[in-house]
Design brief:
Length: about 450
């Protein structure tokens, strides 16, 4: 009997040793966490990812009304067809996304159809968000569900007939919606694919930086060549060296995306919000990926422009010396990092002068970021300069120090001034700029 116990004990010892020695080196030393704990950790990670992706998509800028609760919707979004108010993204059951599910939320991003089956307008850029993966969509939804519900009733669709008929968007989608999600290009490196996913998808950069056709869809073959929106013109982002970012090096691009500031330019107005609320929050790896992708875009072609009238140039130079040279210097060299140099400046050489005219008329304020917290500003000159003077100084800047762009006509200034509801110079104008209300 004793021999039997010894034999059984030896067999058990050999078996246990074989089991222990046969375990892979990666086996956990401790048992896995209970299912509930693992689920909680997974949910927390998903929400954290969603918070980051909401920043990548710059959702807060469009979905937060001036002076209102974050993500509660109601900010006016101008389109060529009228005004659409942004949606409430808080989980309020009646006026927000409280009754959405992950499936209906993904359908809204992927197909532009809301929970009730109604078509959305591409003022909500679902034609770019369609590239977002299902996993990322679910993470965004999980984060938005953690927000405090805000009841905000509003009639979002302010479009005139017939554009207020949502069903018409079914035809638009058939013509222009290329449903995603994003599919990686196996011939490209991983960081390029990540950059394409961000720039073409959640970042929806083409929504502003690509010209639109008469139906409001991106023009084929002109991606990132600059586009008009509301009272601004988003500049060319191609490697064109005159009006694009071809003269910027990679550090210039990184600096602009992270800080809203580099040796060439400073981000203000809508682009300032994009940097403040979005790109300045991106990881370094994602910024580098976006830079890699932007570098691969085909450069736009240079166009011929008419020479300016010498008399207009002379008038513009006098105005420049009187009103602009104190900050931007007589030779347009500016003070890099503070007052943007205008020598070979892409922004002033765009085919559409709307943005520099907006700056001259209404002024500009650089949005502060964590890395560049000082919000430097440019004063408004609508009270001081009439339409011909604004056109003259804009023409001068667009055609001096190596710059080359079409002359600006006073009628262009007048149209923008009226749209911005800014006062014109009058003989009684004197002490200083009138107050203006800008968001």
């Amino acid at each position: 009997m004793r021999l039997l116990f010894i034999a059984v004990g030896m067999a058990a010892a050999v078996g246990w040793a074989g089991y222990v020695l046969g375990q892979p080196k990666s086996s956990p030393a401790a048992p896995p966490p209970p299912p509930a704990q693992a689920a909680a950790a997974g949910a927390e990670a998903q929400i954290s990812l969603g918070r980051y992706l909401v920043a990548v998509g710059d959702c807060i800028a469009c979905h937060t009304p001036k002076g209102g609760a974050r993500f509660s919707g109601g900010r006016p979004l101008e389109t060529p067809f009228g005004v659409v108010l942004s949606a409430n993204l808080t989980p309020d059951a009646d006026t927000g996304i409280g009754r959405y599910t992950p499936d209906t939320f993904y359908r809204a991003l992927h197909e532009g159809i809301d929970r009730q089956g109604r078509h959305l307008y591409p003022a909500f850029p679902y034609n770019y968000y369609t590239r977002v993966s299902r996993a990322d969509s679910d993470a965004i939804f999980a984060y938005l569900r953690t927000l405090a519900p805000v009841r905000h009733e509003l009639e979002r669709n302010r479009l005139p007939f017939p554009f207020n008929i949502r069903a018409l968007m079914a035809v638009w989608n058939l013509m222009f919606l290329d449903k995603g999600p994003y599919r990686e290009d196996a011939s490209r490196p991983a960081n390029w694919n990540r950059g394409a996913y961000l720039v073409e998808g959640l970042g929806h950069c083409q929504a502003c930086h690509t010209p639109k056709n008469f139906l409001g869809a991106p023009k084929d073959g002109q991606a990132f060549e600059g586009g008009k929106f509301a009272e601004w013109f988003a500049p060319d982002l191609t490697p064109n060296r005159r009006r694009g970012i071809g003269s910027w090096n990679d550090d210039d691009l990184r600096g602009f995306l992270r800080r809203g500031l580099n040796a060439h330019s400073a981000a203000a107005a809508e682009m300032g919000e994009v940097v403040a609320f979005s790109t300045s929050q991106w990881t370094d790896a994602d910024v580098d990926a976006a830079v890699a992708y932007l570098r691969s875009i085909r450069a736009s072609s240079d166009d011929e422009v008419a020479a300016p009238d010498p008399a207009v140039m002379k008038q513009g130079e006098a105005i420049w010396q009187d009103a602009c040279a104190a900050c931007h210097r007589m030779d347009g060299s500016g003070v890099p990092g503070y007052f943007p140099p205008l020598v070979h400046d892409a922004n002033v050489q765009q085919r559409d002068p709307t943005t520099p005219l907006h700056y001259v008329l209404g002024g500009a304020r650089r949005e502060p970021t964590d890395r560049a917290p000082t919000p430097l500003a440019m004063p408004a000159f609508h009270w001081k300069l009439d339409d011909r003077q604004v056109a003259a100084v804009a023409t001068y800047v667009r055609n001096s120090w190596g710059n080359r762009a079409s002359p600006v006509e006073p009628e262009q200034v007048d149209r923008l001034r009226r749209k911005l509801a800014l006062s014109a110079k009058t003989p009684a104008s004197g002490a200083g700029p009138a107050s203006i209300d800008r968001h």
